[in-house]
């Protein structure tokens, strides 16, 4: 469960009604609808920024923002600043659509580069296997590692390689919790 993962990683986890008044930045990543509703939007701090990293544009109640705003301006492309009654402002990225696509600066193909690489290398992995049983299967970590390695190399970023002792140590416990 993502909430437990977040807590165990040191993050504070709260219901949205408690988190909204504390938030400066709200990023939805659930893929579900009605995650940030009107009562949450009304409780946000002035200057808060909203972004959707989920799948569809129904995670944030953009209709509520439009209906309750006394003013809307665009301080830069893909950013709308809503002034609410009382003067508080809330900035919405990419009209509540997926922010990495709708608000990204630069070349959209570069934004999608990693997702397409993962899809292509996963298809290659699938083609080299016997038939898998019906079900949901994780993308092998080797595919992710290959993508990261290629991308870092393409960006000119250098990192240390694991030595044999480090790889052996990690393989002894890594994956013991994975399904």
Report the average pLDDT across residues: 88
Q: Could you tell me the number of beta strands?
A: 5
> Structural class of the secondary structure composition?
alpha/beta
Could you tell me the strand content as a percent range? 5-15%
Q: What is the CATH third-level topology name of the largest domain?
A: Rossmann fold
At the first level of CATH, the class of the largest domain is: Alpha Beta
Fraction of residues in helices? Answer: 40-55%
Q: Please identify which CATH superfamily of the largest domain we are dealing with.
A: NAD(P)-binding Rossmann-like Domain
Low-confidence stretches: none
Q: Domains counted in the coordinates: how many?
A: 2
User: What's the architecture of the largest domain, going by CATH?
Assistant: 3-Layer(aba) Sandwich
- How do the helices and strands follow one another from N- to C-terminus? HHEHEHEEEHHHH
- Count helical runs: 8
Give Rg in angstroms: 21 Å
Globular, elongated, flat, extended or rod-shaped: what is the shape?
Answer: elongated
Distance between the terminal alpha carbons, to the nearest Å?
Answer: 13 Å
Q: Which sequence of strands runs across the widest sheet?
A: 1-2-5-4-3
The largest β sheet comes out as: 5 strands, mixed
